[in-house]
Fold these 2 entries.
Entry 1:
Amino acid sequence: MLTDDVFRALLVEYVGVAFEPEDRERLRAVVERQQARMRELHAIDFGGDDPRTTQYVEDFRLPRYA
Amino acid sequence: MPDLSLLPIHELAPMIESRDVSPVEVTRALFDRIDRLEPRLRSFIRLEPEQALTQALAAEVEIARGGYRGPLHGIPLGIKDNIAVAGWPTTSGSALMSEFVTDYDATVVQRLRAAGATIVGKNNMHEWAMGGSCSNGPFGTVHNPWDETRVPGGSSGGSAAAVSASLIYGSLGTDGMGSIRTPASYCGVVGFKPTYGLVSRFGQLPPTSSTSDHVGPITKDVRDAAILLGAIAGYDANDPTSIQSASVDYHAEVGRPLSGLRVGVPVSYFFENAEPEIQALVHEGVRQLASIGGEVHEIHIPWVEKIGLVSAAQGNESNAFLLQYARLGPQAFADRTIWERVIAGQFVRRADAAQAGRLRSLIRREFANVLQEVDVIVTPTNPTPAFLIDVTGDLPGGKPGGNLAITNALTSPFNFTGMPAVSVPCGFTADGLPVGMTISGRHWEDALVLRAAHQYQVATGGYRSPPIT
């Protein structure tokens, strides 16, 4: 969990503005939900290191139906 | 003489070509209707009746001289207000952009003008194209013509509301997570998101979700969508994501008979996240497709259940443009949640986006595998019908996510895969609200997707006018 002091410092670093305490408090909840989603994303078991599951860049314009 | 404003383009165009009806007469009739209904719908940010009548008169003269250009000649259309029209502001639904004027048309606008269309104005939209309600924006709350207490969906809500209420014959929308198909579904009209790369996005401002955004038509029926797609599709060197593709006569293609169409119906995620009433209407739509020769197959796309994580990790593309405004604070945004999302997006790391890219590739591969066994996939466009203005909800079954999840959960998979997808009306709830069914298919088989949707409409009926007078 982010403390207000830590969150304030991160906002200054990542955004450049600390915002008003009231706005910051609401933002903190949003960012914590976002971080929980990212933890969920990284917890996915894609099936090990098989190269078929490690690709993360694709040209989405091109068909792949062969 | 029928009420001209209620006709679809494909019925009106032959009357214009034969000079039984003049483009000026058509445009005047529409503006009479706009004068009557627009104050209640707020579906436009800008209207230009004088310029529209000038364009209509030019079309009339050209047609009289034997210069008929095709089915869009003399047809009044709208343009979502994040697509540039030379000399007019392109606001993207934000007060911050109210004075932003380009001296050039977006490529799609150029192409509509070349086809002879009359551009009557710019449609209202959700601020920055980053929401699904079109409520409480700086240019007014857009109302759903089927129930004015409800939202039209978004972000292309003004386009869908105006087409549904017959204030225009069609409009161009943009669709980064479902922003064409959701409002089309909520307003009982057709919305088509083409294959990624088929339609130029040059002149779409700003590029808030560039790897998943598309420009496409919102129309009264599928044939009209094919007519608009035919005018705007094709390679554009000004758009780095545009790709060379075969020239297709989409309007001719939709009329070709259909037999042996293999229809895939997902067994998980799409239907289970929709309200029972929506599930029943879309299953009935599948039965209709079967009754006209479709073969129905159950399909499995298990990774799609994680699609929300892709949105969460890749939704910060807008920050390249919007961070400058987010630094001003929440008061710079009419929809505070957009400000919150932009700031939260600064906390997404490169590794998060890469992991989401990995998931996105897997989902795309699952769809590609399934589409070797079936030709099209049928799903509910949205989990719920249009919701009440200023009411925040969650997905059916109490799954959280708010209105954004309600409007995007079932549409965004087709943005992240780049597949063509059309929302076609498939009936009404007990409360009289329209429901949309999505038909999607293989990349670059836009014509087949539209043909399936058109044959469905031939079997079940086309455009229905809402009870707004």
Note: Chain B touches chain A through 47 residues (CB under 8 Å).
Entry 2:
Amino acid sequence: MDKLFRISVTALFGAAIFAFWMWLYPQALSYHEQYQLFLFTWDYLAQRLSVSGGLADWLSEFLVQFFFLRWSGALVLAIVAICLQLAVWHASRSVRPDGSRFLYALSFVPSLLILIYMGNTEVLVSFPVALTLSVALCPLFARAGWHTLWLIPLAWWLLGPVALVPVLFAVLLGRRPLHWALLIYTSIVVYALYRLFLSQYTPRDVLFGINYGRLREMLPALQVIIPVVTLLCIFACAVPVRLRQMALAEGALLFLLAAGTLLGVKASYDRDTYEMIAYDDLIRHGKYKEVIERAEHYQPHSPISSCSVNFCLFMEGQLSRRLTEFYQCGTGGLVLPSIRDSFSDLTSAEIFFMMGMPNTALQYYFDCMESIQNCRLSGRFLSRMADCNLINGWWGSADKYLDILSKSLFYRKDALRRKKMVGSDQAVSADPVYAYVRAVRFKEDFISSYEALDLMMALLYNQDNNNFMAGEYYSVWQRLKKKEGGAQ
Amino acid sequence: MRRFLTALSAVLLLAACSGKTTFVEQLPDIYPDYIGVTIPAGIAPMNFNIPQEYDQVFVKVTGSGGGELKARGKWADFPRRKWDALTKRNVGGTLTFTVLGRKGGEWTQWRDFIMYVSDAPLTDYGVTYRKIAPGYTTYSHIGLYQRDLHSFREDPIIESTLTPGQCMNCHTANATDPAQYLFHLRGKNGGTYIQKDGHGEWVNTKTEETIGNIAYSYWHPDGRWLVASINPVRQSFWVSDHQPIEVFDVASDLVVMDLDDHSLVVDPRLTTEDFLESSPSFTPDGKMIYFCKAKAYPVPRQVDSIRYDLMRVPFDASTGLLGEIQTVIPASQEGHSISFPRPSYDGRWLMYNQADFSVFPIDRKEADLWLMDLQTGRTRPIDEVNSPLSESFHNWSSDSRWFLFSSRRDDGWYVQIYFASIDSDGHCTKPFVLPQKNPRKYYHNTIYSFNVPDFTKSKVDFDTRHVYRDVFSGQRVQTSVKP
């Protein structure tokens, strides 16, 4: 009965996590996937393992590549959440094998906290992966004896600072002065590894993790709180509690956890941010109608949102007609100027590409990729950069990018298809998209300028009246410009 | 026993390459192109790849002065010590490469090719450079590195992981001696790190009287002075498929910095709004400064009108004062633009870039290296090393028998470092790219360009321990303008 209860609750929990990512916040999956490119090469593994926390990072990136597909991404996150929960429960069994059924609910707390924490879009999956593996190591550390001496540096190097969880677990479980000495030993080991191998990182990175977040300057409180709470939960789960009305208490605790998670998610998942990420995700997959439908119900007031919705309106042939129905912020909300971050310019880059400005699209995509804060490649951006290079006939760079992409799982097939075009203008011109961009692009060379973008669009349209996008964007730009002038 | 083992290995190798072998008269298509290059003895193994359709390569290297070396595998990967011994044994001679490739179980043997081993030794430890994604307005990972030229070892000097959000550039040593060097950090907590005789300091080189921080710098031989240009750099982007980027200075001035009291010598003749001055360098005797100067035009609109002449001005190291400015090459009159004049350290040659316009040859396809004989004043393009694509930043080895330069010739976009030697008559040898363990894999997979390369006489000593604290504390030695 007890086992069946545990299996049922865990399965239910897994299903809920799957549903959360599959239907509530699927855009987060696409967001994470587009800021990395997992490569099946030894060099890639070696690169990851060259810094502390590298194994967790490598495993995390391996898993995140499956976020390319919504269902597999949701499944991966559900499995990670279940693994963490089971690891906590398993660790608590090693404290006291006869723990009460009542406290099983507490083993879900770390996974639920992770769910809340991941509302911060810059938190990487490597953090839950590292935490899961660290918790899984707790029983091993508890009975490792002198082997702990080599396990500590190994775990710290492979998993990063959350490897302190099994060390503290062993210390708290042992409660002898010798065990407390492990903490001093760990400090010495960490300092030695830092001085020997991580001199190009800041002490702060070494203490709080190099690869747990995309922004290295970021240290949200939850990143420290979650491992501490996890440790507490391991011990709390092992506390033998006997209550008369067990079922009621269980229900109450589960209800409290669910309510707390709901509140946490509400506070952590910023609606505007996720709405804009959803627009980007849908545009990436060509679901323009869905963007318009979402915007009809709720639209964030920002240039990125305006740019995305306007683009989808154009793609659905509604831009001129329905322009005023949606939030506008002048010409800057039609096409964005170059902004130095990895997200804002994505729709604008797509607009430039489709309008016949591959160089500007290349610039925007390149800058987006170079703005990824943890310096990773992006499969999505690299793929578009390869497109732009093929269109320009810049074979060397195109070949390089396609070669890199061909070592990935989800970009491989398309990369190999396009690799056949390298060096052949004829093959590039036979591709309908490339041929179109080549046909409508500028015939004369000049230096582009965002300030003169309307004139550039007019030039594109005058050059080729088939470039309907340039014509329509030009006319809408003029309307918005007039409106801006009127407002002043 | 040793003879027996040698004989046995030879038999095994022959057996391994046995089967049908086709001889072809062409030279092998190797990457990088090392055919006919001249190398210094002791350089890292010149490993190379053959076309990917060949699954095995067998190479035998025979020295004209004796010695032999074999390599077999997916690419030609020579053992470092044996390679080192072979090149040192054949100084002034040649190495003959016999190359066989296996495809579909059958071997092809190409015509042998030769590599020359120069009698000019490479005495320097290695090279320094910056690695950065060649691109547009942003960068992710960036770092200054040093590479041992006698092996494949690369060490970071400083990487952006240590100073998040900061750009870094222009590691500049005094005539390749890293006892005196500097580099700049850009961004919110920017500054110039100057290390001299074991003591380092972070300096703010911007003053109220000057237009920005110093950028392109060059050490005076006595180590007291720096000559530098101040260049607020901007980029614009072309729309056609000819080339993507144009880099230009919105303004630029030239100053001399006295490191004894952190003061700037600001000469009004070199800080005018109407003219742009850039990329200065001292002659090895320290008595002259070479630099480039152009009439300013509105940018980016008339960026293609900005053409730099080669200038020089006498310098008095006792006072820091500049003499009469002279035009050395009025390149602008002939529709050309000169940049990065670099006198050799023996005072014999002056190497510079020439393009149609601009002072950033890296983004000009037509940019080439030129050489001026400082004894006769004669100039010529260095056809031995130039390519149809951009040749740009260059520097001399400490004995001035070798030089290195950046070029985009490999794939048109990612910059690599090339080396060549020069003899007393000014003849240069065919250049070779910086050797790598597995060159195709390395160069094809890298997403970085090699920027601002220079030789370094010995290993750069830079302690990263306090960098984070020092950079973000914002404490800087403030420069002033010399009265």
Note: Residues 8-12 of chain B have pLDDT under 50 and may be disordered.
